[in-house]
From TrEMBL:
EC category: oxidoreductase
GO molecular function: calcium ion binding; oxidoreductase activity, acting on CH-OH group of donors; pyrroloquinoline quinone binding
Keyword presence, Oxidoreductase: yes
Signal peptide: 1-21
Cofactor(s) for this UniProt protein: Ca(2+); pyrroloquinoline quinone
Cited NCBIfam families: PQQ_enz_alc_DH
Record: residues binding pyrroloquinoline quinone: 76, 130, 174
Name of the protein this chain belongs to: PQQ-dependent dehydrogenase, methanol/ethanol family
Residue ranges of every copy of the Pyrrolo-quinoline quinone repeat domain listed in the record: 35-361, 493-549
Residues given in the record as Ca(2+) binding sites: 192, 276, 318
EC number: 1.1.2.-
Organism name: Paracoccus liaowanqingii
Alphabetized SUPFAM superfamilies for the sequence: Quinoprotein alcohol dehydrogenase-like
Length: 600
């Protein structure tokens, strides 16, 4: 089977299309010794060509050095390495440290933004932040209060700053940004507060707005073309979003954009997902609620949409559609195809043609998934591309004030934002998953700007009749649509994976273990317990000719919100507190970067 070249960044340069991309990002991500973007590369593969650490010697890993961030609560994302400098971020208040790798991690500069702590009250699921970006000699940070700031990468000096949202109405940020061309793409959080989702492109030179595309609403505000924007091979038609909502519900309809971006310079298309519709009570918003729960492909220069695919129409379970889209080239039926692979919260893994939006594969990546039997794959069917919902688990069909029990997965999905990785050597995707089910009772709720707009009570628990734990780490074949191997975990795997040319895959656990497994077989090769639960994304870099592995530990996020925020009511944290109550027996709050090496 043919695969994408070993480094997606190098491959994209060789296409000759790099004029569209940001040259500094392409240049720095093409250097295997660095980790210059949170996603590893524009393709979101989270793969490193470094191969000093192998399946034969990974068992000898030891801690090389550590760094305390000085902040508690959930540490998502990971550090960047550009040149001899490592850039480390924290959750709120989103401090940034520049560490000199040539001088024992000496702090070259620190950025400590002064944010109003009131923003914490309107952050949905902990005060997490998925990291900074690098472009054009700047470090770009999007703070919890939606301040977008560009810092000189060498000095930390503020080059420009702009406000992208309004926390007073529930708009916040937890995601990283994506520099593309002469712009930086920015999303918004707040679906649980009735925000109207969007992405905005700002000019890298000065922070001025270039374009804005909403997830819902009028065509002109969504930057769609009724005749040329496609959905499963058909034009979306005029007013496609407005026609799928009752009245003006779209104005507070969610579809927030707090996940990951990926980008294909050859097509000049950026890919991302939109979140759940608001409210969580489906009875209050009849219709498909377009274009929430949707993979979107847009022209990076203009923002105009090329194609959409709505994975969960009229979402009834909070299956946010924001997870990462991984770009690979593979052979299907004897033809090389430019593919996009998405592991959705709803428990289905999708393989699509990223140029046209054609749906090629849609299969469950956890056998516990029961809310739908399958996705209709017949292009001639009236329900083509739609999940076949099981009435027993339909919160809409069961109605308001009815507790629908035994729904799998839970609202936090078979996989949340914790990114998967891909190895061009094995052709497999390595996916951190949640093996969790729920009871879900919707109720009527009124909208008030800046107040929670949820409308459901949840409880969560491990999938029944299974291994007893709440997570698995799996290897997935995206062409066959099947699991190749699966490793059970006691708790959800809330850490981003890393695949390497040494045939080793790394990930972290909520108890705090960094684990290394064989990329071919899944055999566990190494395990080390860090000071706190790991919800950060493992990365690797090389300095002075030596390969290192690094990961942030600091328990929190949705799964760890009980520990992070000191919550005890089982229904708090949108149902997660009770589901993960036992986590406090294994770890405690922290905030530390741990770096690993092989002995000399």
């Amino acid at each position: 089977m043919k695969h994408l070249l070993n480094s997606a960044a190098v491959a994209l340069i060789l296409t000759g299309a790099s004029a569209y991309a940001n040259e500094s990002v392409l240049t720095e991500t093409a250097k295997p010794e660095q980790w210059a973007i949170q996603t590893g590369d524009y393709a979101n593969q989270r793969y490193s060509e470094l191969d000093q650490i192998t399946r034969e010697n990974v068992g000898d890993l030891r801690v090389a050095w550590t760094f305390s961030t000085g902040v508690l609560r959930g540490h998502e994302g990971g550090p960047l390495v550009v040149g001899n400098i490592m850039y480390v971020h924290t959750p709120f208040p989103n401090n940034i440290f520049a560490l000199d790798l040539s001088d024992n991690g000496r702090i070259l500069w620190r950025h400590t933004p002064q944010q109003d702590p009131e923003v914490i009250a309107v952050m949905c699921c902990d005060t997490v932040y998925r990291g900074v970006a690098y472009a054009d000699g700047m470090i770009i940070s999007h703070q919890a209060d939606t301040t977008l700031v560009a810092l000189d990468a060498m000095t930390g000096e503020v080059k420009w700053s702009v406000q992208t949202g309004d926390p007073a109405i529930g708009e916040t940020n937890t995601a990283t940004v994506m520099p593309v061309g002469d712009k930086v793409l920015v999303g918004v959080s707040g679906g649980e507060y009735g925000v109207r989702g969007r992405i905005t492109a700002y000019n890298l030179a000065d922070g001025t707005e270039a374009w804005k595309a909403y997830s819902t609403g009028p065509d002109e505000e969504m930057l769609v073309n009724a005749e040329t924007t496609m959905h499963l091979g058909e034009p979306i038609g005029a007013d496609s979003s407005l026609n799928s909502w009752e009245g003006d519900q779209w104005k507070i309809g969610g579809g927030s954009t707090w996940g990951w971006f990926s980008y294909d310079p050859d097509l000049n298309l950026v890919y991302y997902g939109t979140g759940n519709p608001s409210t969580w009570n489906p009875s209050q918003r009849p219709g498909d609620n377009r274009w929430s729960m949707t993979i979107m492909a847009r022209d990076a220069d203009t923002g105009e949409a090329k194609w959409f695919y709505q994975k969960t129409p009229h979402d009834e379970w909070d299956y946010d559609g924001v997870n990462e889209n991984i770009l690979v080239d593979k052979e299907i039926d004897g033809e090389m195809r430019k593919l996009l692979v998405n592991f959705d919260r709803n428990g289905f893994a999708y393989t699509m043609d990223r140029e046209t939006g054609e749906l090629l594969v849609a299969e469950k990546f956890d056998p516990a998934v029961n809310w739908a039997t399958e996705v209709d794959m017949d292009p001639e069917s009236e329900t083509y591309g739609r999940p076949m919902v099981v009435s027993e688990f339909s919160t809409a069909q069961n109605g308001e004030d009815t507790n629908t029990t035994g729904v799998c997965p839970a609202a936090l999905g078979t996989k949340d934002q914790q990114p998967a990785s891909y190895s061009p050597k094995t052709g497999l995707f390595y996916v951190p998953t949640n093996h969790v089910c729920m009871d879900y009772e919707p109720f009527r709720v009124a909208y008030t700007a800046g107040q929670p707009y949820v409308g459901a009570t949840l409880s969560m628990y491990p999938a029944p009749d299974s291994h007893g734990g709440m997570g698995n780490f799996i290897a997935w074949d995206a062409v066959a649509g099947e699991i190749k191997w699966s490793l059970p975990e006691q708790f959800s795997v809330w850490s981003g994976a890393l695949a390497t040319a040494g045939d080793v895959v790394f990930y972290g656990t909520l108890e705090g273990f960094l684990k290394a497994v064989d990329a071919e077989t899944g055999e566990e090769l190494y395990s080390f317990k860090t000071p706190s639960g790991i919800i950060g994304n493992t990365m690797t870099y090389e300095h002075d000719g030596k390969q290192y592995i690094a990961v942030l530990s600091g328990v929190g996020g949705w799964a760890g919100i009980g520990l992070a925020a000191g919550l005890t009511n089982p229904n708090d944290g949108l149902g997660a507190v009770g589901g993960y109550a036992a986590l406090s027996d294994y770890t405690e709050l922290g905030g530390q970067l741990t770096v690993f090496e092989l002995p000399d």
